[in-house]
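Supplementary notes (optional reading)

For those who missed the lab, this is the record we used. Protein: ABC-type xenobiotic transporter. Length: 958 residues.
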Amino acid sequence: MGAMNVGQAAPYIEAFSVARGAAANIFDIIERKSAIDPTGSEGEKPPSVKGMIEFKDVRFSYPSRPDVKVLQGVSLSIEPGQTVALVGSSGCGKSTCVQLIQRFYDPLDGHVFLDGREIKSLNIGWLRDQIGVVGQEPVLFATTVAENIRYGREGVSMEDIQAAAKEANAHDFIMKLPKKYETNVGERGSQMSGGQKQRIAIARALVRQPRILLLDEATSALDTQSEAIVQQALDKVRKGRTTVVVAHRLSTIKPANKIVVFNKGKIEEVGTHNELMKLQGLYYNLVTAQVSPQEEKENKSSPQKEKAEDEAAFIDGEALSELSQDIIEDLASMSPAALTRSPSIRQSLKRRRASSAKAVKSPVRNVQEKEEEEALPEVATWEIIKKNASEWPYIVGGILGSAIQGTTIPLYAILFGEILGTLSIAEEEKARNEANFYALLFLLIGIVAALSMFMQAYMFSLSGEILTARLRKLTFAAMVRQEVGWFDEERNSVGALCSKLSGDASAIQGATGSRVGTIVQAITTLGISIVLALYYDWRLGLVTLPFIPFVLVAVYLQSKILMGQSVTESKVLENAGKIAIEAITNIRTVAGLHKEEHFANEYSKALLKPHEEALKKSHLRGAAFGFAQAMPFFAYAVSMFYGGYLVNENQLTYEKLFKVAEALILGTMMVGQAVAFAPNYSKAKVAAARIFQLLERRPAIETSSGVGLRLSGHVENIELQDVHFTYPTRPDVPILNGLGVRVGRGKTLALVGSSGCGKSTIISLLERFYDPKSGRITISGEDIQALNVGWVRNQLGLVSQEPVLFDLTIAENIAYGDNCRVVGHEEIIRAAKQANIHSFVESLPQGYQTRVGSKGTQLSGGQKQRIAIARALVRNPSVLLLDEATSALDTESEKVVQEALERAQEGRTSIIIAHRLSTIQNADTIAVVQGGCVVEAGTHEELMKKQGHYYDLYQTNH
């Protein structure tokens, strides 16, 4: 019996093997000692900070690219309270210096000091608490506006939060949001425009009242009006603080105490603006390259202008006061970057990611609040098995093996009864011969059992793994088929979708795979056992049979208990996954805010609910499982009692008693063992329901290749007629209100206006990420909704404000721009040259085969942007959509890329969104968007003559 039970444990060994494999990876992470531990208590914590920063002969290469020297002997001294600007071309090492100050990395050689102490000797958490950071690509977390600002400093009051928001020019637009400071910003701030995200990030940095302020392109995402006001706010708050500014717009750093010019990882020039201009060196060239022809003309006609600019770094306070009253902030536009198989969407992923508009105070409240979920459909086991139908040879083989394995136990019962009868024979020779015979039969049964168990385990494991792989492919394909608006919903966040792909697909094996083998085996054993029991003695069989339904009842009860628990657990684990993914994908921001322990605690709290639910129901599960396991022994007691009576009355032989008892009891035990798989089966049913719900969902915007018209030739014109639009998750907030605009073939349309006015929403509608509530959008006279979505997106080349690259090589990222064909290496190089990135790529050790890292982390913002531009150009689109396409570029690169884009625009229809009006002066039509509609349209000269909205924007811009 002991050996038999060990044999029955075989299906469970699979779970141990899987667990060991998973544990190895987990334990590696748990036991890894961080080279730079932000949660440790080691290091000094000085009582105060002056803010003196010093670099001494610092040399640095990123760990993933040790051959590329990013900093080469940098020595720099920053006095307390000074504002020091770092300028230079993209990738020259400016942002690397900012990261070394935060101690995200340690230099390979040389030293970084703070107040005379080497930065390595300081406690990392303490160090980062002294620093306020605003990066080029601001990261917000999926919680309220107030909580996002509060991440800057724990425990701050609402008054402090509002004060910081006012300083960052964010208070006015926040007060216009549906729930004001309690409005959820969405995952990665998807409910906010780029400028609004940036201002909240600035408020978050200001609320912590840091001694050191690091501004890495802090105003790059702001419109002209907001930039001027925020710059004044930053100028005010950095007084008395050590401030390090990384900027491409050199007009914003003129008042800096010291300007440091980088070139290829070395410091070329150091001085004030006036000193460096007199040198007429690298800085002078950068500044003069940034002056537009219009500005040069104005400067010549107004010789006092330069002097005035030097004396007053920014717009004077009175002008700003008047300006701030005129600013009208509309609610954020949202373009979630959903997974999609359309190449044009792939290359635009990231600008805004999908999330929820529900207001919550912290990620944990997502766990605590009840979500309005669609009811999960009932999925029959047969439906799950049908998905595995193409593996029918494996399934049939597995069932056959299971059935054979199931017969071995009743056969064992028969032989057991016979051997007991043999051993009671008085004649020694006869007893020995019969015992040897039955021993041989036992051996044969053992061989059959081994072969059948191998067949069962191998066949079902194979079919189960194939099913898991197939479901993952089908699930991912179903995800990328959905319209972008579907990703806006909270239940379709990145964490939830990853959970479906990884967890649900494999959990379905609980209703297939080796578990099915155990169930078939149990049914076979039980069925044959019942037949044998009734055959050998129907009276004893009928007395013992009633115990079997009790086992089945226990199975049913346990399944019901676990089914409800599995549904709850799945939802909660999804929410926990959201927190984990959000923290890990934004780890630089988390580290900069010193919030590692905060997110670890939030994750632990999120996991607490399923743990508590499991504890509440554990006694019920234990009772049901224990009841099922006890039944065979109760049956054994009754069968022995009644069987003994029948033997005593000579109505039953000794051998038959044990044949009946062993057959039924072992059959009952097999059913009891099948109960152990009830948890897996329950989870499998829930997982199947979730996956099937997704597989059967029909997207609101069908992207299938066969749906819709495909026009021949180029796009003749694009027109938006009286378009009204609200985002699906915020139906009560109008974004576009009767917007109308038109652009003809080969013409350029520029959209200008304040952040959040609806400009990027127009791009989203043209890409058919969404459909308008009313009005029409036409391409070449055809309603866009009648056209094939894939065809439409293939006509468009999109370059967004926040470029996203994939963890592939540079060549693969550029080639990704056109997945409809094989893009040759010569085409990749040509596109790279047009985007002014070829020289940089060639300077890398691996050239175009260099991997860019997750989301392009191995590259600077400007380098990423230029690769994104090359990716758009390689597809040779009919229409170019440029959403702040040069915002992340340094002056030198911007000028060259702007020329490249102008060349690329020749013969193409172009729609440009820009805050820097100097970049769109040559547009055929400039449309000023305000309040969700076009308030002015015309050429630059026409609009300047009107002296209306555009005139005001232009004056502010210059």
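If you only remember one thing from this example: The domain at 378-537+655-703 is CATH 1.20.1560.10 (ABC transporter transmembrane region fold).
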